[in-house]
Amino acid sequence: MLDSRFFSYKDTVLSCEGVALDALAAEYSTPLFVVSRNALVEQYRAFEEAFSSLSHFTCYSVKANFNIHVIKALSDQGCGCDVNSGGELFRALKAGVDPQKIIMAGVGKSDQDIEYALQSGIFMLKAESLSELRHIEAVARRLGVTASVGVRINPNVTAETHPYITTGDSKEKFGIDEGSLDEMFDLFKSMKHVNFMCLDMHIGSQIFDTEFYHAATEKLLDVLDAARAKGFSIDYLDIGGGFPVTYEPQKPATPIEQFASVLIPVLKKTGTTIIFEPGRFIAANSGVMVTKVLYRKRNHIGKEFVIVDAGMTELIRPALYQSYHEIIGVKQQEATIVADVVGPVCESGDFFARGRTIDAVGEGEYLAILSAGAYGAVMSNNYNGRLRPAEVMVDNGRTSLIRKRDTFEQLIENEV
Ligand SMILES: *Cc1c(COP(=O)(O)O)cnc(C)c1O
User: Fold this and answer.
1) Which one of 3.40.50.2000, 3.40.50.150, 3.20.20.10, 3.30.1360.120 gives the CATH number of domain 105-278?
2) How far is the CA of 279 from the centre of ligand 1 (A)?
3) How far is ligand 1, taken at its centre, from the CA of residue 364, in Å?
């Protein structure tokens, strides 16, 4: 969706915070990701505002957009980070985030990840299995430190979202299930180098129904009661991310205030500090991808294709999750066409829209693919020898290149 506070037409040209996107495309070439710094900051503030009456801290889920300048824009506002790997921890530290504001998730952390996290002095590691807990204990013992640990519980609720982004169901690989809790409590009692301080969940992404969130939270609170009954003092509850955004104007996301009004009363009575991990909510509508129309072609059955210079290698969401992204002309148009908007990659799944009514763009003109700020550039890859795209950030009319496009040389530099 076009967030008109940050992206709007100015003299018939789509602009980001007043900067014309066709000028950016000409300067930096395409495909190009354009991020509005103020959009990131305002979404973070809106989130903080909604939950302001609750004792909490927010850790932006870095995987949504891990560019260090994006991380820095948020950490400058006081936001922490949720990282999912040693690589993301490295990014957060490079962005200057205080290690005590970093937490680490991940269903398959290696001993190296665990060691890096402990040596960096991050706030908390979230364990997703009993075996992982044993590894955390062993690494902490070897380093002579105490690891602050949260446990991700699988609350066994099925969020009504795309199956690839539901994570709180016991059929999925995530978290520790309710059948293992007693064994887990016993394990904690036996461990000397682990401080059990938090219960955690993350039930999926793009969750529209507050009731799923509520139901999962209630399950987490049952585990909290059980843990307290065993004598553990749990000071934190981490209820994850997954807060929705609007991709299609016809399908508006549940407002964040609605989640707040359902969750705050339930969470307040626990007496814990709540941790949130929003990713998409903060980043999705902060960015667009600008792509150039290379060719138009019409086949003998009258089907029209608009072939653009971006593909699934830059924005994989339509191919991976059948996601909808709005597509609009960078230059405002009166006329429309019905077309498939497709990329140059040798895969039939390489499309952004099928049979879509779009602005009647000509060859050489630009399209903007909206809501590309989360799970966009971070998933770009070099398949088909493609160069990962450039990214620019706009801040009140000032533009900075925050990632250079890959070069051909980079494509082979690791091939020894
Ligand atoms: C991906 C992820 C998030 C963020 O999810 P969004 O839907 O982007 O808010 C938060 N926590 C964990 C553990 C995740 O894996």
Assistant:
1) 3.20.20.10
2) 6
3) 37
Q: Report whether residue 204 contacts ligand 1, using a CB cutoff of 6 Å.
A: no
Residue 194 forms beta bridges with which residues? 147
C-alpha 137/C-alpha 142 separation (Å) is 9
Distance between CA 9 and CA 20 in Å, rounded? 9
Q: Which of 317, 320, 310, 316 is nearest to 341 (CA)?
A: 310
Instruction: Give, using CA atoms, the residue closest to atom 10 of ligand 1.
Output: 241
Q: Angle 107-402-410 (CA atoms, 0-180°, nearest 5)?
A: 75
Active site residues: 346
Mind giving me the DSSP string for 204-254?
BSS---HHHHHHHHHHHHHHHHHHHHTT----EEE--------SSTTSPPP
pTM (global) more than 0.90: yes
Residue of 172, 277, 320 to test ligand 1 pocket, by largest number of atoms within 8 Å of CB: 277
Average pLDDT of span 345-368: 97
d(CA 315, CA 317): 6
64 lines ligand 1 (CB under 6 A): yes
Q: Is 103 in the pocket of ligand 1 (CB under 6 A)?
A: no
Query: Are the C-beta atoms of residues 65 and 376 closer than 8 Å to each other?
Result: yes
pLDDT of residue 174: 85
**CB 278 near ligand 1, within 6 Å:** yes
Q: Which tokens sit at 8?
A: 């709007």
Superfamily of domain 7-36+284-412: Lyase, Ornithine Decarboxylase; Chain A, domain 1 (2.40.37.10)
pLDDT at 160: 65
- What is the model's pLDDT at position 84? 96
